[in-house]
Every structure is written in structure tokens, then in C-alpha cells.
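For this section, I looked closely at a protein sequence along with its fold in C-alpha cell form, which I now present.
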Amino acid sequence: MNVYVRELCGALARAGVDCDVYTRSWQPGLSPVVAVEPGFRVHHVDAGPLTPLPVDDLVELVDEFTAGVRIQLEGAFRPDLVHANYWLSGLSGHALKHQLELPLVSTFHTLARVKAEADADHHGQRARAEADIIGCSDAILALCNDEAAQLERLYHAVPERIEIVPPGVDHRLFFPGDKAAARAALDLDLDPGLDPDGKGAPVLLFVGRIQPLKGADVAVRTLAELPQRDATLVVVGGPSGPEGEHELGRLHTLVDQLDVGDRVRFVEPLPHDQLTDYYRAADICLVPSRSESFGLVALEAAACGTPVVAAAVGGLATLVVPGITGYLVDGRDPAAYAAYVTKLLDDPELAGLVGAQAAALARRYRWSIAAGRLRRLYADLTARRLVECS
């Protein structure tokens, strides 16, 4: 979500839309205002202790945060509208809409009732809050058709208020590159004993938060299923959410149980621009999420020319064209993932073609396109009568 906000606001600023982003101060010494680029500023708002907090604790700070944002807005130029990202910001945006009589645009990224359908933990408080925000939003952004359908089915969102605006990818960073050079840069020149033919041992990649919803365990089990015993899995990401630490421990236990400890490399979360070498170094990117509103990891991997084997859920079903840019798997069976991985590893010509086609498809997704659509939507909303709470 941070990548989404950063890239979208930058594109909007370059399209002539001034963007002020308000976020909670999480450590001492932060500048009150950071000018990211012309027309794009980040404001740090005091709310609660100056330390990172678990997401579940942030809901108690929403009122304080909202009050802080309002004070800043009253001392600055009046904005034309409020655009909230995630349900916690939606709570704040909903209040500011009524206090300042401004249109509200909401992007949720994940939804509690969708998570519930995927057997992940969720909170009734969050689902109710999301329903209230959706009922009063002047526009709700969906990242793909599947998310739009979920908003209608699970939250009774008014279809006319839903706008489907896919994210983009920064093609200045994410583009096909030299696989050997990327592996050398990451010290992925694997033990020659594991690769007797000298062709380069296979590398699988998982990028994402370590939590049950993202399915890193499926990636580990897929590795164990492969007939290619020299393959390595690189897991980039850290624990997230209330179950994150437990899930990370469970993942390490699973690695030991399956006896693949020498073939799994864990990498701490990285700055966004440092992911490019990992995408290029990999033969295949695995995205086995239980649910996914869009799937930015799959898009970035595709932009780097890396085939994707992903779950057939959410936006992933839009990004991955089976047999053309990668493969989709129904369900969570590691053997099904392993079959597609093996198909690609056993046929380098096919893998090269799929990777090239994935990169071509990814070029359709640009932040400038998303910003252009939003600029038109924003202008339209400022001329409409505000939606009243349902």
C-alpha cells in the first residue's frame, strides 16, 4: 500500500494534481512536512506514542489523528476532496468528509469480509467500519473487476460509485535485465555441487508479507515437491499483522520438517527499488495468496520478464494469462504449483517466451494512466452533490 500511495501521488503531482498525504508520526525527529517532489508533500501528524505500533492498536488513535489532520487543513489551502487508503484512513476520511463537507474517495486494498471468505482472521469491527465508509463514499476505487464484484456482493456497494482503476508499475525500475548479473549481485551463485551441469540452478521467488493470507507456506511446500532437487526458494518479506510472528515461526518449522533448510533463503523486507535484482534473478515468481485485491508483486515480476505461477484469485486472475504470461492454480495444492514450475524449468524456450509475453503485458500498466483516470474522477466529484450516509 505504501508503494501504491507513493507512486500514485507522484504520478498525480506530475499530472497537475497537488497531493498532500497525512500519516501518523512513528518516531521522534521526523520533519513535520516532507516535500517528496513538486506538488507532492507528506505530513507527519502526532497521534499516540512516537513509536511503530501494531495495526490493531491504531484504531484507538483514529480520532486523535483525525483531529490533527483537521487542524492542519484549517491552516492551509482547503483541499478539493479526501482520498483515503485502507480502512483506518477510511475512518478518518469519513469523519473529515462530514466536518469539512468534502467528497470522499476510498481505496481499501484489502477487505475484512474477503479475508473471512479466505479463512483468514478478521474483526467484525473492521467489517462494520468498512461498510459504513463504503456507504458514504462518493467514489470507491476497485483495483480490478473481481474487487468491484466483492464490494457489491459483500458490502452492497452502489455499482455506480465503484471506479475500477488498476495500479501501475514503475517501468524505469522494473524491466527485464541480466539474470546472471542479478544473481551475482545477490550472491545467488549457488553451490556448483548442486548444479553439476553448470547451467544455473533454478531459483524460485516469493515476495510478500509473512502472514497466513500470503501463502508463503505453499511456496515452501512447492519447493519440496519439485523433482529439481537443486532448486532454491528465496523468501523476501517480514512478519506482518497479529499472526505475523507466529506465521514466521511456523514457516521455519515447516522448512525443517520438509528438510529444505539448505535450499530456502530468508531475506528481510527491502526498499521497493531493491527488489528488481530479485525479480531478475528468479526463474519463476510464486504468488500463492489466499486472496489478492490486485497483486503488485505479480505485476512487478512480469515487468522484469519473470514468469509467474499464482493463485487464481482476485486481481491475479487478470494479471496472469494462463499459458501466455504464467500459470494460475485453483486451490492451494503444492503439487499443482510444482507441476507448472517444472513445466517452465524443463523447457527454457517456453520459459523465455512466457517471460517476454509477461513483460509485454505489464507495459500496459502505468501509473500515469491511473493518475489520468483519477484526475478526471476528482474533477467530476467536485461538481457533484455529496453522497449522504446510507
Remarks:
- Residues 179-362 form a domain with the Rossmann fold fold (CATH 3.40.50.2000).
- The chain has two domains: 2-168+367-381, 179-362.
- The mean pLDDT is 92.
